[in-house]
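Handout, page 2. Input:
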Amino acid sequence: MVFFKKGKKPSKKLELVKTVRVEASKGFKVSEYFRACIPNAPVYIGDVGGCFNEHLLLLSEGAYEASDIKVLRLLETSTDAVVVAELANKFEIKLGQFYSLLLKYCAGEHDLFLENGDANVAYVRDGNGILMSVRAYWLGCHHVWGIDAFPTEEREVWNVGRRFFSR
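Output:
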């Protein structure tokens, strides 16, 4: 049981922006969608970082059901560990779900992602079970998305306002 000093409530680090429904998938092969400069791609990715390629590019996800994904805004500067702890057992999503959110953005749902170059973050496990923070960031001067990922153990510090996605 956790006790707090009288009059002091636990600090909430994230606020809900909206909830979005993503469709079911029979499977998702990451290398078919998260590659740079695919002509006429529905989500135009201009840059994919080396760590994403090393940890996630060869990942194939199995089938998953339609689900609701929460879009959250960070209220206090925090680390990955703090954000994951606040999201409890709902922090992890599939890369296919993250890509579905990017598709929705490209179809006009511009309130899902930040467009100012700041990171939009999803937590995904690589093929070895390492928890990765996957980042999508808009490169406005080039009109493309940048994608990268880093192990959460690197203790990334996130500034106020960043977007996070969870179940």
